[in-house]
Design brief:
Layout: E1 2-5, E2 20-21, E3 41-42, H1 50-99, H2 103-110, H3 124-137, H4 148-157, H5 166-185, E4 187-188, H6 191-216, E5 221-224, E6 236-239, H7 244-249, H8 255-268, H9 275-293, H10 307-315, E7 317-320, H11 337-349, E8 353-356, H12 359-374, E9 392-396, E10 402-409
Helix pairs in contact: 1-2, 3-4, 3-5, 9-11
Length: about 425
């Protein structure tokens, strides 16, 4: 699995803290945070003071002593486990011989156990520790904050966490969920911090994809690059197995050339904040989801004007979660940047999505349309009538002149449905 860098990283390897601040950056546009003034900023760590350096040295000496003691305990534990394993093997062999079964079967029966997987949702224990950490570490200088073990001990004996109501538990869970969401959506304050975050995350993704390819044989390729000339993130390309041969053999492009052109495009034209880019992104997501639902028509596009008839009633699918306050029309007709941003975020988060209607829902919706038409309401926008309606015209083949003398009635195509607006 190849990972290639085509430019040098100006950042220094290291870590930055995960503190989140709502401070708005200055008008300087040289950093990612400055170019996104509406987002909270992850503040970088400040240099250690003299007192903090002394605390760090003391903690380091204490950890060295603890490590030496732990190493001695581990040696004794390993010797005891080795002795126990020898006794276990001997007893297993006796049981296998006595009952005339294989050695592996006895070990399998003795070693049977069940794995329990914890849910991935927000846990109350983590919410309590988060609340207690905010309480005891608020205002403390770096190096003086309590450790996780100390916070856990304090939370264990704190009476306010003993007999909580369901409302109090829900409030703690909500606070932790909001903190995690804010932390995940905050922007890095400096270019070097953003570069380290990008490199670390991409390396983690590469390891996951390597394992996935090994388990399933899937082919994956990935290209990543910076989005601004001031950014110091490295362009990467990655591929499993020999997938990069596809670009060279079929597309006649080198991976280095692809990532270099993508970097040029991203730095010059890839400004996703512009209204036109958000319009194209929203239209692309909506049409792609519609084509996934309506497989029979590969070139279908949303008909917003006649959506009730041409899409919902005809194909039995509905668009759920359209954001409130955003007019239901084509994204290319929306000019308000805030409306476009809201729609884009809803589509990317999956809250606005396509969904199949059940058979009962389809029948009920058809009945509603009939009732509305019976009441005199005009459902949808009728198609414009042809200028030569009612007159006969010759059938011709495109680009080949007259095909035959046969004629057709021009009124036969008046009621056809438009689904490609």
């Amino acid at each position: 699995m190849a990972v290639l860098s085509t430019c040098h990283n100006n950042g220094v390897p290291g870590r930055c803290n995960d503190e989140v601040s709502a401070t708005k950056p200055t008008a300087n546009k040289s950093t990612w945070a400055a170019r996104n003034p509406g987002w909270p900023v992850m503040q970088p760590r400040q240099p250690l003071s003299a007192v903090e350096k002394e605390h760090r040295s003391a903690h380091a000496a204490s950890r060295q002593i603890s490590a030496a003691q732990r190493k001695d305990r581990d040696v004794l534990l390993n010797e005891a486990i080795r002795s126990l394993a020898d006794e276990f093997e001997a007893k297993v062999q006796v049981l296998a011989t006595t009952h005339n079964v294989t050695h592996e079967k006895v070990k399998k029966l003795l070693g049977g156990h069940k794995y329990y997987r914890n849910p991935h949702g927000t846990q109350l224990a983590n919410a309590i520790i988060h609340d207690k950490a905010h309480e005891v570490n608020e205002g403390r200088a770096r190096g003086e904050k309590l450790s996780l073990e100390q916070i856990r001990d304090l939370a264990r004996v704190d009476p306010k966490y003993q007999d909580m109501t369901q409302e109090e538990k829900d409030e703690l869970l909500r606070a932790l969920t909001e903190f995690r969401a804010l932390k995940n959506s905050s922007v890095r304050a400096t270019n070097s911090a953003a570069a380290r975050d990008a490199q670390s995350t991409l390396e983690h993704i590469f390891k996951i994809l390597d394992g996935l390819a090994l388990r399933t044989g899937i082919y994956v390729c990935l290209f990543a690059t910076r989005g601004h000339v001031y950014d110091s993130s490295q362009p990467f390309w990655y591929g499993t197995d020999n997938i990069m041969d596809f670009w060279e053999d079929v597309m006649d492009l080198e991976p280095d050339e692809i990532v270099r052109k993508m970097e040029q495009w991203a730095c010059m034209h890839g400004k996703s904040k512009r209204a036109s880019c958000m319009q194209r992104m929203c239209a692309r997501i909506l049409n792609s989801g519609l084509r996934t639902c309506v497989v029979a028509k590969k070139k279908i596009r949303i008909n917003f004007i006649n959506f009730e008839v041409a899409i919902k009633a005809r194909y039995g699918i509905d668009l759920l979660g359209w954001p409130e306050g955003v007019p239901f029309q084509s994204p290319r007709a929306i000019t308000n940047a805030e409306h476009l941003r809201t729609l884009r975020d809803a589509l990317k988060a999956g809250t606005c999505r396509w969904a199949y209607m059940s058979r009962q829902q389809c029948v009920q919706y058809q009945d509603q349309l009939k009732e509305r038409r019976s009441a005199g309401e005009l459902v949808g926008k009728p198609r414009k009538k042809r200028s030569d309606a009612g007159r006969k015209r010759r059938r011709t083949a495109l680009g080949k002149g007259l095909k035959s003398a046969a004629t057709i009635d021009s009124s036969s195509g008046e009621n056809s449905s438009e689904d490609d607006i």
